[in-house]
Amino acid sequence: MRKIMKWIGIVLGSLIGLALLAGLVLYPIGLEKLTRSYSDIPIETVDIPTGPAAAARGRHIAIVWECTKCHSENLSGKLFSDDLIMGTIPAANLTSGKGGVAASYTDVDWVRAIRHGVKPNGQVEIYMYDYYSTMSDRDLGDLIAYLQQIPPVDSNYPAMQFGPIVPIATAVGLLTPAAELIDHSAPRPTEPVPGATVEYGKYLSAICFHCHSPNLASKLEKWKQDDFVNAVRAGVLPDGKKFGHAKFLKTFGEMNDTELTALWLYWQSLSPAKPPK
Ligand code: HEC
Ligand code: HEC
User: Fold this and answer.
1) pLDDT for position 24
2) Nearest ligand, measured from the Cα of 263
3) What is the CA(244)–ligand 2 centre distance, in A?
4) Is residue 202 scored above 90 in pLDDT?
């Protein structure tokens, strides 16, 4: 018995030792990725319209493209995590209030932050989505027009500090800053034309693809358009049961009929069994 205990002790001790050693090696690798500077990437300019119509469209985009999910409904930010494992990570206050970024942000700063995942000082933004690099000039322009006129809200978040897991997760590829995933000098795709078309649905599907794979199309083979609209907008499955999307009602519940029809047509077009009607 004592012998077994001794062996268990040796195995456990070695495992803990190995984990610590791996951590010591991985931590600096991850930290390098998280603090890498992207200050020399080319940033394009986009037209930023003025007027209430653009700002209203921009508000819609801020909701549907999930900005409000992380930066809170009035975009004054929120503490994303604040514990010993993940560390202290605030999602920035995007307003022009105290502690917010808008007062000092130029037009180019907004484009760099949203489309490239890089802060004005060249540092990467942790947790921002890389699919924002696909946002069209018009949508980005309207979004920025909205962000530049949201009411100021003061905030006082603690400074960002990574817990031990964040650099290690980054080193092993579980977490990759958007700035590292984006091809910053890729030519811009052609501007999508809003409408109930497969092409526009394809553009919007970038929002779905950060959680879904093309497999979603085969799940939809027996669905009707109304089932799809209900699932995405209201979080209800064809059998009437609430499911995972019920968590996203404040985001995808905002999608309008044109967007949902376009998305339906696009997802249908991916399904070999059922060509789009
Ligand atoms: C998954 C959560 C998440 C989503 C979605 C998200 N953000 Fe962020 N964003 C963050 C976090 C966290 C930070 C802070 C990152 C850092 O400091 O490294 C941040 C940083 C930023 C910054 C940089 C602030 C600074 O310190 O200079 C801007 C600007 C920004 N977000 C705008 C947006 C906009 C606009 C959208 C929607 C198109 C959006 N974010 C969507 C989590 C998110
Ligand atoms: C933040 C992650 C996330 C995003 C973004 C997202 N989904 Fe989902 N979606 C889920 C999860 C999780 C489920 C499965 C939920 C469950 O089984 O309870 C799901 C399920 C679904 C279903 C039901 C079919 C199934 O797999 O059971 C449909 C339809 C769907 N999503 C459509 C969409 C569309 C269209 C978009 C883009 C507009 C989208 N989703 C974006 C997370 C997401």
Assistant:
1) 86
2) 2
3) 7
4) yes
Integer angstrom CA distances of residue 255 from 52, 171, 225: 19, 36, 14
How many angstroms separate the alpha carbon of residue 221 from the centre of ligand 2? 15
Is residue 170 a contact partner of residue 27, using CB atoms and an 8 Å limit? no
Rounded distance between C-alpha atoms, residue 154 and residue 246, angstroms: 31
Pseudo-torsion of CA 128, 95, 246, 202, nearest 10°?
-50
**Distance between Cα 217 and ligand 1 center (Å):** 30
CA gap 165, 88 in Å, rounded: 12
Phi, psi (degrees; rounded to nearest 5) at 89: -130, 100
Average pLDDT over residues 154-179: 94
Going from the Cα of 255 to the center of ligand 2, the distance in angstroms, rounded, reads 14
Residue 20 has pLDDT above 90, yes or no: no
Residue 192 CA to residue 199 CA, distance in Å, equals: 7
Q: How high does pLDDT run on average in the chain?
A: 93
pLDDT in tens, 76-122: 999 989 999 999 999 999 999 999 999 999 999 999 999 999 999 99
Cα distances from 36 to residues 25, 39, 228, in angstroms, run 18, 9, 41
Question: 265 is written with which tokens?
Answer: 């047509």
Residue 246 CA: distances (Å) to CA of 232, 237, 272? 9, 10, 28
Q: What is the rounded CA–CA span in Å between residue 57 and residue 62? A: 9
Ligand 2 pocket mutation, candidates 211, 254, 268, criterion most atoms within 8 A of CB: 211
> 58-72, pLDDT tens digit by residue?
999 999 999 999 999
